[in-house]
Amino acid sequence: MSLPPLVRIRYRRPPDRLELYEQFLVHDTSDLKVTFAPSVVRPAPLRIDGRTVLENGSPVVWFTFPGAWHDIGRFHTTDGVFTGFYANILTPVVLGPGHIWDTTDLFLDLWTDGGGVRVLDKNDFDEAIAREWIDETTARRARTEIKRLRSAAQSGSWPPPAVHEWTLERARRRVEL
After folding, report:
1. Which class for 38: exposed (0-12), middle (13-18), buried (19 or more C-beta within 10 A)?
2. pLDDT by residue (tens digit) across 42-67?
3. Strand partners, 60
4. What is the three-state SS of 104-145?
5. Calpha distance 164→158 (Å, rounded)
6. Which of 12, 35, 43, 155 could disulfide-pair with 62, CB 3.0 to 4.6 Å?
7. Where along the chain do its domains lie?
8. Interhelix angle for 122-130 vs 136-155, to 10°?
9. Contacts of 150 (CB under 8 A, 6+ apart)
10. Residue 87, SS3?
C-alpha cells in the first residue's frame, strides 16, 4: 500500500501573511476532502478556556467541504487524546491542479468540545474589518457562516456525521505502510 497524496494548502491571513501546509489526502470525494496532519508545527500551544487543545506535534484530521465557507479540524494533544472540534471561517477552498489548494482565513473560529460552543477571535475579525483587510460583503458572509455553525452546534447537529466517522485512528491507518 502506498501513501496517500500530499495536499499543499496555501493559507492566506490578511493583510499579508501566507502559510503553507502539507497534509495527506486520506479521503477524496466531490463533497468531502479529509486530510491528515500527523504532527502540526505550532509556536505555542493553543489554549481555550485555560485548557491545551492543540500543541506542537499534535495530530489533526481536517475536513474540507468544497464550496463551504469553513473547514473543520478534529484536534488532539500530542499523545492522541481528542480535545474537540475547531472550525475556521474562510473563503471556499480553491482546489487547484496537483493538489494545491488556496484559501483565505476570515479570522472567526468556532470551538466545541462537548461542554459548550465558543466563537473565537472576534476581536481579530473586528480589527480586520476596521483596517479594511476584509471587504463588507465577505465580512457579512463570514458573520452568516459563524452564526449558522454556532446554531447548528448548539442544537447538536454540528459537526456533521463524517467528522465523527473520521477518527484519528482511521486517518492514521490510511497513512501506515
Report:
1. middle
2. 999 999 999 999 999 999 999 999 99
3. 37
4. EEEEEEEEECCCCEEEECHHHHHHHHHCCCCCHHHHHHHHHH
5. 10
6. 35
7. 6-171
8. 170
9. 110, 117, 119
10. strand
Reference 110, options 76, 154, 66; nearest CA is 154
**Distance in angstroms (rounded) separating the CA atoms of residues 172 and 168:** 6
What is the dihedral sign for C-alpha 122, 63, 155, 117? negative
Q: Which three cell numbers stand for residue 116?
A: 459548550
Given a cut of 70, whether residue 177 has pLDDT beyond it is no
Contact predicate 100/18, CB 8 Å = no
* CATH superfamily placement of domain 6-171: FomD-like (2.40.380.10)
Give the pLDDT confidence of 16-39 residue by residue, as tens digits: 999 999 999 999 999 999 999 999
Predicted confidence band of residue 176 (pLDDT cuts 50, 70, 90)? confident
Does the pLDDT at position 93 exceed 90? yes
